[in-house]
Amino acid sequence: xxxxxxxxxxxxxxxxxxxxxxxxxxxxxxxxxxxxxxxxxxxxxxxxxxxxxxxxxxxxxxxxxxxxxxxxxxxxxxxxxxxxxxxxxxxxxxxxxxxxxxxxxxxxxxxxxxxxxxxxxxxxxxxxxxxxxxxxxxxxxxxxxxxxxxxxxxxxxxxxxxxxxxxxxxxxxxxxxxxxxxxxxxxxxxxxxxxxxxxxxxxxxxxxxxxxxxxxxxxxxxxxxxxxxxxxxxxxxxxxxxxxxxxxxxxxxxxxxxxxxxxxxxxxxxxxxxxxxxxxxxxxxxxxxxxxxxxxxxxxxxxxxxxxxxxxxxxxxxxxxxxxxxxxxxxxxxxxxxxxxxxxxxxxxxxxxxxxxxxxxxxxxxxxxxxxxxxxxxxxxxxxxxxxxxxx
Length: 392
Hints:
The chain is an alpha/beta fold. Helices cover about 40% and strands about 20% of the residues. The chain has two domains: about 1-150 and about 285-360, Response regulator (Rossmann fold), CATH 3.40.50; about 160-280 and about 370-390, Response regulator (Rossmann fold, 3-Layer(aba) Sandwich).
């Protein structure tokens, strides 16, 4: 699956750099993106990279943007970390050496942890728009003025995880079995959701599996002995397809609750599941019919990449991507500068942006945006419940 994506990415990475070659250097605003574009975790960087490029091309095609009496275009550099921390530090240092003031990504926690020391050394010189879970705990710390987090946080009164657990409780849920990967994010998720389920009065049983696991039969059988109402697996489609298939085929579980990953596994196993409740930043299949901006985005995507729209991956465009590039430009215009990152940061914290998503940042720099809860039932019927914490 990622082979064809890798070819697409290499092509548009080159195009992204060539697009600004005829623009005078003083008229260019450099932006960077640091994500896993190839490798086993490329799912989390692929759509963000495609969305960012679309935004840059749209802005440049309209002649750029004005700040004061000067017009600028964007020059995009996209660095492929391959999901490897060592490669990420090399690529990120290059961006800093090239005086790139605005960097989008990373989404992966291990990559953010790797580049954070370098980012701190450059505090005050640039802004980083990261979706990584571990970025949450770094917000507001000394030497972290550079940081914005481009993803809803799970916990808190407006946290999507809190609202998701509330929705699950309405399904008369008493017991949940959580099956997550034994890595940095998996352990963080266990801490977050242990507290959320406890507050909701729902019993939680947790098991962790090692990265690379393909056979989940033993751990599924162990969790099934507790007779949970829902299996809470995570956190990427790379494992979800296997878990859902094995759980339903073995009879261990047929009701699922997810806060990461797509509804693809539910639709592929639609006759075997009973319920599949998933956090989806936006259910594009429905939004395309009702939201003109989403429809235009999808049409532009198809035209640019000459392929069908990836509905299953599109929700990941909610992080460090299309809207965030447009929002940054709007913030630069509001601040009256493309260079003063402190003024641009202040502008971002004080504004809201109405694009594919309605976006604002809280006082720490963490994003708040509307999202969908998609409930797939046996046979493939889909119900969408919308939440908009930006109104809170």
